[in-house]
Amino acid sequence: xxxxxxxxxxxxxxxxxxxxxxxxxxxxxxxxxxxxxxxxxxxxxxxxxxxxxxxxxxxxxxxxxxxxxxxxxxxxxxxxxxxxxxxxxxxxxxxxxxxxxxxxxxxxxxxxxxxxxxxxxxxxxxxxxxxxxxxxxxxxxxxxxxxxxxxxxxxxxxxxxxxxxxxxxxxxxxxxxxxxxxxxxxxxxxxxxxxxxxxxxxxxxxxxxxxxxxxxxxxxxxxxxxxxxxxxxxxxxxxxxxxxxxxxxxxxxxxxxxxxxxxxxxxxxxxxxxxxxxxxxxxxxxxxxxxxxxxxxxxxxxxxxxxxxxxxxxxxxxxxxxxxxxxxxxxxxxxxxxxxxxxxxxxxxxxxxxxxxxxxxxxxxxxxxxxxxxxxxxxxxxxxxxxxxxxxxxxxxx
Length: 398
Fold this sequence. Notes:
By secondary structure, the protein is mostly beta strands. Helix content is 8%, strand content 56%. It has three helices and 19 strands. The protein has helices at residues 2-23, 93-97, 101-106; strands at 30-52, 55-73, 79-91, 115-121, 124-139, 142-149, 181-191, 194-201, 210-219, 222-231, 234-245, 248-259, 270-280, 286-294, 323-334, 337-345, 352-363, 366-376, 387-397. β11 (234-245) and β12 (248-259) form a beta hairpin. The chain is globular.
Protein backbone atom coordinates (compact mmCIF):
# COMPACT_ATOMS: atom_id res chain seq x y z
CA UNK A 1 0.00 0.00 0.00
CA UNK A 2 2.85 2.35 0.85
CA UNK A 3 4.49 1.71 -2.53
CA UNK A 4 1.21 2.34 -4.38
CA UNK A 5 0.69 5.55 -2.41
CA UNK A 6 4.16 6.86 -3.29
CA UNK A 7 3.74 5.94 -6.96
CA UNK A 8 0.43 7.83 -7.00
CA UNK A 9 2.07 10.91 -5.50
CA UNK A 10 4.93 10.96 -7.98
CA UNK A 11 2.63 10.38 -10.96
CA UNK A 12 0.46 13.35 -9.96
CA UNK A 13 3.51 15.54 -9.40
CA UNK A 14 5.11 14.56 -12.71
CA UNK A 15 1.83 15.13 -14.55
CA UNK A 16 1.39 18.61 -13.13
CA UNK A 17 5.03 19.55 -13.71
CA UNK A 18 4.56 18.39 -17.29
CA UNK A 19 1.50 20.61 -17.65
CA UNK A 20 3.25 23.69 -16.30
CA UNK A 21 6.32 23.00 -18.44
CA UNK A 22 4.19 22.55 -21.56
CA UNK A 23 2.25 25.77 -21.08
CA UNK A 24 5.17 27.92 -19.89
CA UNK A 25 5.47 29.29 -23.41
CA UNK A 26 1.78 30.15 -23.68
CA UNK A 27 2.24 33.75 -22.46
CA UNK A 28 -0.83 35.21 -20.80
CA UNK A 29 -2.51 31.80 -20.58
CA UNK A 30 -0.35 30.93 -17.58
CA UNK A 31 -0.63 32.85 -14.29
CA UNK A 32 2.03 32.36 -11.63
CA UNK A 33 2.61 33.75 -8.13
CA UNK A 34 3.76 32.70 -4.70
CA UNK A 35 5.81 33.69 -1.69
CA UNK A 36 8.80 32.83 0.47
CA UNK A 37 8.52 33.01 4.26
CA UNK A 38 11.04 32.49 7.02
CA UNK A 39 9.57 31.99 10.49
CA UNK A 40 11.27 31.33 13.82
CA UNK A 41 9.18 29.61 16.49
CA UNK A 42 9.82 29.36 20.22
CA UNK A 43 7.34 27.41 22.32
CA UNK A 44 7.49 27.05 26.12
CA UNK A 45 5.28 24.18 27.25
CA UNK A 46 3.46 24.46 30.55
CA UNK A 47 3.21 20.68 30.76
CA UNK A 48 6.34 18.92 29.42
CA UNK A 49 5.88 16.24 26.77
CA UNK A 50 7.34 12.87 27.82
CA UNK A 51 7.89 10.54 24.88
CA UNK A 52 10.12 8.01 26.62
CA UNK A 53 13.30 7.64 28.68
CA UNK A 54 15.41 10.74 28.12
CA UNK A 55 12.80 12.27 25.81
CA UNK A 56 11.15 15.10 27.73
CA UNK A 57 10.41 18.45 26.09
CA UNK A 58 9.50 21.62 27.93
CA UNK A 59 10.87 24.06 25.34
CA UNK A 60 10.55 23.81 21.57
CA UNK A 61 12.37 25.94 19.01
CA UNK A 62 12.69 25.51 15.27
CA UNK A 63 12.91 27.46 12.03
CA UNK A 64 10.55 27.12 9.07
CA UNK A 65 11.55 28.23 5.57
CA UNK A 66 8.34 28.12 3.55
CA UNK A 67 7.95 28.54 -0.23
CA UNK A 68 4.59 28.44 -2.03
CA UNK A 69 4.09 28.25 -5.80
CA UNK A 70 0.70 28.80 -7.48
CA UNK A 71 0.10 27.98 -11.15
CA UNK A 72 -3.10 28.62 -13.05
CA UNK A 73 -3.40 27.65 -16.72
CA UNK A 74 -6.31 29.15 -18.68
CA UNK A 75 -6.39 26.20 -21.04
CA UNK A 76 -9.29 27.40 -23.21
CA UNK A 77 -12.61 29.23 -22.94
CA UNK A 78 -14.18 26.58 -20.69
CA UNK A 79 -11.28 24.89 -18.88
CA UNK A 80 -8.85 26.21 -16.23
CA UNK A 81 -6.17 24.05 -14.60
CA UNK A 82 -4.89 24.93 -11.11
CA UNK A 83 -1.76 23.52 -9.47
CA UNK A 84 -0.55 24.85 -6.11
CA UNK A 85 1.94 23.41 -3.65
CA UNK A 86 4.22 24.40 -0.79
CA UNK A 87 7.78 23.41 0.04
CA UNK A 88 8.83 23.63 3.69
CA UNK A 89 12.26 23.26 5.27
CA UNK A 90 12.05 22.55 9.01
CA UNK A 91 15.24 22.84 11.02
CA UNK A 92 16.41 23.41 14.57
CA UNK A 93 16.87 21.79 17.96
CA UNK A 94 13.33 20.44 18.18
CA UNK A 95 13.66 18.69 14.80
CA UNK A 96 16.93 17.15 15.97
CA UNK A 97 15.54 16.02 19.35
CA UNK A 98 12.18 14.83 17.99
CA UNK A 99 12.78 13.22 14.55
CA UNK A 100 9.25 11.71 14.64
CA UNK A 101 7.90 15.20 13.89
CA UNK A 102 8.89 14.71 10.24
CA UNK A 103 6.47 11.81 9.82
CA UNK A 104 3.70 13.87 11.49
CA UNK A 105 4.18 16.66 8.92
CA UNK A 106 4.29 14.18 6.03
CA UNK A 107 0.91 12.68 6.91
CA UNK A 108 -1.86 13.40 4.39
CA UNK A 109 -5.41 12.46 5.36
CA UNK A 110 -6.83 13.03 1.88
CA UNK A 111 -7.88 10.37 -0.63
CA UNK A 112 -4.79 11.33 -2.67
CA UNK A 113 -1.63 11.15 -0.57
CA UNK A 114 0.13 14.27 -1.87
CA UNK A 115 2.60 15.04 0.91
CA UNK A 116 6.10 13.64 1.25
CA UNK A 117 9.47 14.33 2.83
CA UNK A 118 12.02 14.14 0.03
CA UNK A 119 15.15 15.24 1.92
CA UNK A 120 16.07 14.52 5.52
CA UNK A 121 19.14 15.18 7.64
CA UNK A 122 20.17 15.48 11.26
CA UNK A 123 18.01 18.26 12.66
CA UNK A 124 16.22 19.13 9.41
CA UNK A 125 13.87 17.84 6.70
CA UNK A 126 12.13 19.15 3.58
CA UNK A 127 8.45 18.50 2.90
CA UNK A 128 6.42 19.14 -0.26
CA UNK A 129 2.63 19.17 -0.08
CA UNK A 130 0.26 19.63 -3.01
CA UNK A 131 -2.88 21.18 -1.53
CA UNK A 132 -4.54 22.38 -4.77
CA UNK A 133 -4.67 20.40 -8.00
CA UNK A 134 -7.93 20.58 -9.89
CA UNK A 135 -9.65 21.17 -13.22
CA UNK A 136 -12.31 23.91 -13.47
CA UNK A 137 -14.86 23.46 -16.27
CA UNK A 138 -17.51 26.09 -17.09
CA UNK A 139 -20.53 25.44 -19.30
CA UNK A 140 -22.98 28.35 -19.41
CA UNK A 141 -24.61 28.28 -15.96
CA UNK A 142 -22.76 25.16 -14.84
CA UNK A 143 -19.36 24.76 -13.19
CA UNK A 144 -17.64 21.44 -12.52
CA UNK A 145 -14.45 21.31 -10.43
CA UNK A 146 -12.55 18.02 -10.06
CA UNK A 147 -9.52 17.43 -7.83
CA UNK A 148 -8.04 18.69 -4.58
CA UNK A 149 -9.73 22.00 -3.87
CA UNK A 150 -10.98 24.25 -1.11
CA UNK A 151 -14.68 23.59 -0.44
CA UNK A 152 -15.42 26.85 1.35
CA UNK A 153 -18.86 26.67 2.95
CA UNK A 154 -17.86 28.67 6.01
CA UNK A 155 -19.22 32.18 6.57
CA UNK A 156 -17.79 33.29 9.91
CA UNK A 157 -14.17 34.35 10.29
CA UNK A 158 -13.13 32.13 13.23
CA UNK A 159 -15.52 29.20 13.75
CA UNK A 160 -17.34 27.59 10.80
CA UNK A 161 -19.91 24.88 11.67
CA UNK A 162 -21.01 24.88 7.99
CA UNK A 163 -17.47 24.09 6.80
CA UNK A 164 -18.11 20.33 6.92
CA UNK A 165 -15.54 19.34 4.28
CA UNK A 166 -12.32 21.03 5.42
CA UNK A 167 -12.51 22.83 8.76
CA UNK A 168 -9.47 24.97 9.55
CA UNK A 169 -7.56 25.54 12.78
CA UNK A 170 -7.64 29.20 13.90
CA UNK A 171 -4.29 28.79 15.65
CA UNK A 172 -2.61 27.70 12.39
CA UNK A 173 -2.28 31.34 11.29
CA UNK A 174 0.65 30.67 8.95
CA UNK A 175 -1.50 28.60 6.56
CA UNK A 176 -3.53 31.35 4.89
CA UNK A 177 -4.74 29.11 2.05
CA UNK A 178 -6.26 26.54 4.45
CA UNK A 179 -6.63 22.80 3.74
CA UNK A 180 -8.09 21.29 0.59
CA UNK A 181 -10.38 18.34 -0.12
CA UNK A 182 -10.23 15.64 -2.81
CA UNK A 183 -13.65 16.09 -4.34
CA UNK A 184 -15.95 16.65 -7.29
CA UNK A 185 -18.02 19.83 -6.99
CA UNK A 186 -20.91 20.63 -9.36
CA UNK A 187 -22.44 24.11 -9.23
CA UNK A 188 -25.53 25.40 -11.00
CA UNK A 189 -25.98 29.20 -11.00
CA UNK A 190 -29.73 29.68 -10.65
CA UNK A 191 -29.72 33.49 -10.57
CA UNK A 192 -27.59 36.59 -10.14
CA UNK A 193 -27.21 35.91 -6.40
CA UNK A 194 -28.25 32.28 -6.07
CA UNK A 195 -26.72 28.88 -6.80
CA UNK A 196 -27.08 25.17 -6.05
CA UNK A 197 -24.03 23.03 -5.31
CA UNK A 198 -23.40 19.29 -4.92
CA UNK A 199 -20.09 17.92 -3.60
CA UNK A 200 -18.78 14.36 -3.47
CA UNK A 201 -15.68 13.89 -1.33
CA UNK A 202 -13.49 10.85 -1.91
CA UNK A 203 -11.90 8.89 0.90
CA UNK A 204 -9.96 5.79 1.81
CA UNK A 205 -13.03 4.39 3.59
CA UNK A 206 -16.68 5.34 4.05
CA UNK A 207 -15.94 7.28 7.24
CA UNK A 208 -13.82 9.71 5.19
CA UNK A 209 -16.29 10.13 2.33
CA UNK A 210 -19.12 12.62 1.99
CA UNK A 211 -21.96 13.66 -0.30
CA UNK A 212 -23.65 16.96 0.52
CA UNK A 213 -25.34 19.90 -1.13
CA UNK A 214 -25.75 23.62 -0.58
CA UNK A 215 -28.24 26.18 -1.85
CA UNK A 216 -27.39 29.90 -1.65
CA UNK A 217 -29.78 32.82 -2.14
CA UNK A 218 -30.26 36.48 -1.20
CA UNK A 219 -33.18 38.11 0.61
CA UNK A 220 -33.26 41.82 1.52
CA UNK A 221 -29.49 42.19 1.06
CA UNK A 222 -28.78 39.17 3.29
CA UNK A 223 -27.01 36.13 1.87
CA UNK A 224 -28.41 32.82 3.13
CA UNK A 225 -27.39 29.21 2.62
CA UNK A 226 -28.88 25.82 3.44
CA UNK A 227 -26.72 22.68 3.56
CA UNK A 228 -27.47 19.00 4.00
CA UNK A 229 -26.23 15.51 3.24
CA UNK A 230 -23.96 12.74 4.45
CA UNK A 231 -20.51 13.51 5.89
CA UNK A 232 -18.46 10.59 7.19
CA UNK A 233 -20.34 8.94 10.04
CA UNK A 234 -23.17 11.51 10.16
CA UNK A 235 -26.15 13.02 8.44
CA UNK A 236 -25.80 16.80 8.49
CA UNK A 237 -28.22 19.68 8.03
CA UNK A 238 -27.53 23.35 8.58
CA UNK A 239 -27.94 26.94 7.56
CA UNK A 240 -26.00 30.21 7.61
CA UNK A 241 -26.36 33.90 6.83
CA UNK A 242 -24.30 37.01 6.17
CA UNK A 243 -25.43 40.64 6.18
CA UNK A 244 -25.02 43.85 8.14
CA UNK A 245 -26.73 45.91 10.83
CA UNK A 246 -26.05 49.65 10.64
CA UNK A 247 -22.77 49.02 8.81
CA UNK A 248 -21.60 46.21 11.11
CA UNK A 249 -21.10 42.78 9.61
CA UNK A 250 -23.46 40.17 11.06
CA UNK A 251 -22.89 36.47 10.30
CA UNK A 252 -24.03 33.14 11.64
CA UNK A 253 -23.90 29.39 11.05
CA UNK A 254 -25.58 26.36 12.61
CA UNK A 255 -25.17 22.67 11.76
CA UNK A 256 -26.71 19.57 13.30
CA UNK A 257 -24.90 16.23 13.09
CA UNK A 258 -26.89 13.01 13.48
CA UNK A 259 -25.12 9.60 13.41
CA UNK A 260 -25.94 7.19 10.61
CA UNK A 261 -28.00 4.20 11.86
CA UNK A 262 -24.97 1.87 11.68
CA UNK A 263 -22.55 4.42 13.19
CA UNK A 264 -24.25 5.20 16.49
CA UNK A 265 -21.62 3.20 18.37
CA UNK A 266 -18.77 5.37 17.01
CA UNK A 267 -20.46 8.76 16.58
CA UNK A 268 -22.77 11.07 18.51
CA UNK A 269 -25.47 13.65 17.85
CA UNK A 270 -24.35 17.26 18.11
CA UNK A 271 -25.46 20.77 17.22
CA UNK A 272 -22.79 23.41 16.59
CA UNK A 273 -23.56 27.10 16.09
CA UNK A 274 -21.58 30.34 15.83
CA UNK A 275 -22.59 33.99 15.52
CA UNK A 276 -20.23 36.91 14.86
CA UNK A 277 -20.22 40.67 14.37
CA UNK A 278 -17.47 42.99 13.14
CA UNK A 279 -17.17 46.71 12.46
CA UNK A 280 -14.58 49.11 11.04
CA UNK A 281 -14.66 52.67 12.38
CA UNK A 282 -13.83 55.74 10.30
CA UNK A 283 -10.34 55.87 11.87
CA UNK A 284 -9.73 52.26 10.61
CA UNK A 285 -10.08 50.69 14.07
CA UNK A 286 -11.49 47.19 13.51
CA UNK A 287 -13.36 45.17 16.15
CA UNK A 288 -14.66 41.62 15.86
CA UNK A 289 -16.50 39.35 18.28
CA UNK A 290 -17.92 35.85 18.02
CA UNK A 291 -19.54 33.14 20.12
CA UNK A 292 -19.45 29.38 19.55
CA UNK A 293 -21.89 26.80 20.95
CA UNK A 294 -21.19 23.06 20.92
CA UNK A 295 -23.99 20.92 22.37
CA UNK A 296 -21.53 18.04 22.87
CA UNK A 297 -19.02 20.26 24.67
CA UNK A 298 -18.58 20.51 28.42
CA UNK A 299 -19.10 23.28 30.94
CA UNK A 300 -16.44 21.71 33.17
CA UNK A 301 -12.76 20.97 32.64
CA UNK A 302 -12.48 20.60 28.87
CA UNK A 303 -8.99 19.15 28.60
CA UNK A 304 -6.87 20.13 25.61
CA UNK A 305 -6.43 19.16 21.97
CA UNK A 306 -3.00 18.55 20.45
CA UNK A 307 -1.52 22.01 19.96
CA UNK A 308 1.27 20.85 17.63
CA UNK A 309 -0.85 18.68 15.31
CA UNK A 310 -4.59 19.07 15.75
CA UNK A 311 -5.57 16.52 13.09
CA UNK A 312 -8.91 15.68 14.77
CA UNK A 313 -10.37 19.15 14.25
CA UNK A 314 -13.69 19.11 12.40
CA UNK A 315 -16.80 21.25 12.02
CA UNK A 316 -18.40 18.93 14.57
CA UNK A 317 -15.72 19.56 17.20
CA UNK A 318 -14.36 23.09 16.76
CA UNK A 319 -13.88 23.30 20.52
CA UNK A 320 -14.12 20.96 23.50
CA UNK A 321 -16.13 23.57 25.41
CA UNK A 322 -19.91 24.01 25.34
CA UNK A 323 -19.42 27.78 24.98
CA UNK A 324 -16.47 29.74 23.57
CA UNK A 325 -16.08 33.50 23.25
CA UNK A 326 -13.83 35.36 20.80
CA UNK A 327 -12.77 39.00 20.61
CA UNK A 328 -10.39 40.92 18.33
CA UNK A 329 -9.15 44.48 17.95
CA UNK A 330 -6.96 45.66 15.07
CA UNK A 331 -5.60 49.13 14.31
CA UNK A 332 -3.11 50.63 11.79
CA UNK A 333 -0.85 52.71 14.05
CA UNK A 334 0.85 54.11 10.95
CA UNK A 335 0.36 53.33 7.24
CA UNK A 336 3.16 50.77 7.60
CA UNK A 337 2.46 49.27 11.05
CA UNK A 338 -0.67 47.36 12.05
CA UNK A 339 -1.23 45.98 15.55
CA UNK A 340 -3.70 43.24 16.40
CA UNK A 341 -4.94 41.60 19.58
CA UNK A 342 -7.30 38.62 19.81
CA UNK A 343 -8.57 36.42 22.61
CA UNK A 344 -10.60 33.24 23.11
CA UNK A 345 -12.22 32.47 26.46
CA UNK A 346 -13.73 29.24 27.74
CA UNK A 347 -16.19 30.53 30.37
CA UNK A 348 -16.92 27.00 31.57
CA UNK A 349 -13.45 26.22 32.95
CA UNK A 350 -11.96 29.73 33.05
CA UNK A 351 -9.10 29.10 30.63
CA UNK A 352 -8.25 31.57 27.88
CA UNK A 353 -6.01 32.40 24.94
CA UNK A 354 -4.32 35.75 24.18
CA UNK A 355 -2.92 36.58 20.73
CA UNK A 356 -0.97 39.83 20.43
CA UNK A 357 0.51 40.59 17.01
CA UNK A 358 2.08 43.32 14.89
CA UNK A 359 2.87 43.62 11.18
CA UNK A 360 5.45 45.96 9.61
CA UNK A 361 5.10 46.55 5.87
CA UNK A 362 8.69 47.05 4.66
CA UNK A 363 7.83 47.29 0.96
CA UNK A 364 4.78 46.49 -1.17
CA UNK A 365 5.66 42.80 -1.21
CA UNK A 366 7.80 42.39 1.93
CA UNK A 367 6.52 42.41 5.50
CA UNK A 368 7.69 41.44 8.98
CA UNK A 369 5.30 39.85 11.46
CA UNK A 370 5.53 39.24 15.22
CA UNK A 371 2.95 37.21 17.12
CA UNK A 372 2.38 35.50 20.44
CA UNK A 373 0.02 32.67 21.32
CA UNK A 374 -0.38 32.73 25.09
CA UNK A 375 -2.51 30.06 26.77
CA UNK A 376 -3.58 30.38 30.40
CA UNK A 377 -5.66 28.31 32.82
CA UNK A 378 -5.57 25.65 35.48
CA UNK A 379 -4.40 22.09 34.73
CA UNK A 380 -7.04 20.07 32.90
CA UNK A 381 -8.73 23.10 31.35
CA UNK A 382 -9.01 23.66 27.59
CA UNK A 383 -6.02 26.02 27.34
CA UNK A 384 -4.36 25.48 30.72
CA UNK A 385 -1.80 22.87 29.68
CA UNK A 386 -0.42 24.45 26.51
CA UNK A 387 2.00 27.20 27.52
CA UNK A 388 3.22 30.09 25.40
CA UNK A 389 4.48 30.34 21.82
CA UNK A 390 6.20 33.24 20.02
CA UNK A 391 6.69 33.68 16.27
CA UNK A 392 8.81 36.02 14.13
CA UNK A 393 8.20 35.87 10.37
CA UNK A 394 9.56 37.61 7.27
CA UNK A 395 7.45 37.19 4.12
CA UNK A 396 8.25 38.12 0.51
CA UNK A 397 5.46 37.78 -2.06
CA UNK A 398 5.93 37.60 -5.82
